């Protein structure tokens, strides 16, 4: 034996109680200083280059053109810098990564700026409590923000969307069940119609209800008419998204249920629909998000009103999008601020609705 | 765990199941033909044979799950205690309640808790049960499936949080809660690790003392371990599958009569 240790050493070592050393994970995906400097350097270099050429040599102006040129210059500079030390594959990989990050930040930036701008512009409206507790009866658009409010529009939106949900969820999910669980010859035609209808412009739904129910049937312009027109646009959205949710329910579950002696309908009701609960909730949210923002529909089928109305079958009923539209188009400063305040409330309502629906549709006891 | 398993389960006379001249089609292609097999009461019958020879199809014919596939048809008779389950008077749902099946892949209902999964058969068939009876049934079924001790403290949590082997035993408990006369198993261990397989085999052996069980397996050692009777299925290329040889498991594996069986059980092909 030429080992330096006694043969018994190894055994003794493993028998001895080993003190546990606190380990820290290695950072194996760290960016090297080289990566950082080439990225930051390329950004600065392209910025300087574009500033020089775009503004000082060509005397151009315009923020968008500037940003586009900066990005183009950045890609060239960054690629050149990377190419000095890396293979073609690495260069392409980095450029694609940077471009995807950019695309994501543009989307998030656009969204955030919209939300922040809306809440900032509406700030002076919604800090007044009366904004939530009063309607606009007898309040002129030029009145100070300490008078009047949007209670009538909030109530109108809530009632109209609620009726539209009650009308469209059973129809939409029923259609989805037909498409996914029954099928047959007609399902393909139904699916085509549903898919085409998801792109239906809301103004057509409004005109449809206006012509059929208000002109021919003689229904007055009311909140109910708004709800029905909303439902026309919401049903196809719910049907389509729900069908996708039902289709991803594993077939093994349907089979297991039928193997226990369940009928087809009982399987759908007790196994398929509950398993697709989260997807069905998402479908409903998508549809509500569409319905709640519709402006042309209430404009055509109800018309704006300034008073509080809890009754969906008599008298017009205002809603938030319509209120925002009519206030904003007065171009009176305080009315415009009220419009932004109402828009903030609308945004908040959508978020609350989203959170509540997610919470209600979570899987029982699932480790998520 | 095995000694306590049977206590508390109702002692009923086990049922016999007999396939008479069974054939089955998918669309226009005949996949099994001339299958005659008597599955003895309180016996585990193993169906063995290479892939694609129609074992699973035959198993699904036995509890009318075959017809759930669009375009699937069958001929012949399946007699449960001498009565043809395909006779016009028999409703397909009650046949499936009396002849339970456990599939290859564990498939607990994800939207239900463990306890609800066990009693799913009652809910799905619209059978009402008192709260106390329900608790008794859950405990009894889980005990018979060998899962009670592992889940008794978390009956209201989701069944999908269990391990694969536990999920499969939950599916067995779910089938047992329906109080079936016969239990069919379609490769119940093929998606499981060796340890879970052993647990399930223990369960099958224990259940097989009082119940009629039919199991499809690709694992020959498993067939030897759990079954008393075996049937060897084979499909010649282009021909429908059928039984080449059947007999007591001991005899089929130690002294097969047909050379093809001998080849298969000795690992010659398949």
Protein traits:
heterodimer; A: 368 residues; mainly alpha; MetI-like fold; 16 helices; 0% strand; extended; disordered C terminus; B: 270 residues; alpha/beta; Rossmann fold; six-stranded mixed β-sheet; four-stranded antiparallel β-sheet; globular; disordered N terminus
Can you describe what's shown?
The complex is a heterodimer of chains A (368) and B (270). Helices cover 71% and strands 0% of the residues of chain A. By secondary structure, chain A is mainly α. Chain A has two domains: 33-121, no CATH class; 151-360, MetI-like (MetI-like fold, Orthogonal Bundle). In chain A, helix 7 packs across helix 15, helix 8 (187-197) packs across helix 10 (223-247) and helix 15 runs antiparallel to helix 16. Chain B is α/β, with parallel strands linked by helices and 270 residues long. Chain B has one domain: Rossmann fold (3-Layer(aba) Sandwich). Chain B has helices at 55-62, 92-98, 114-118, 120-125, 131-144, 148-151, 164-177, 194-207, 220-226, 249-254, 259-265, and strands at residues 17-26, 29-39, 44-48, 72-80, 83-84, 99-102, 182-186, 212-216, 229-234, 242-248. In chain B, the strands form two sheets. In chain B, strands 6-7-8-3-9-10 form a six-stranded mixed β-sheet, with helices on both faces. In chain B, strands 2-1-4-5 form a four-stranded antiparallel β-sheet, covered by helices on one side. Chain B starts with 16 loop residues before the first strand and ends in a 5-residue tail after the last helix. The chains are: A mainly alpha (368), B alpha/beta (270). At the A-B interface, helix 11 and helix 12 of A face helix 2, helix 4 and helix 7 of B.
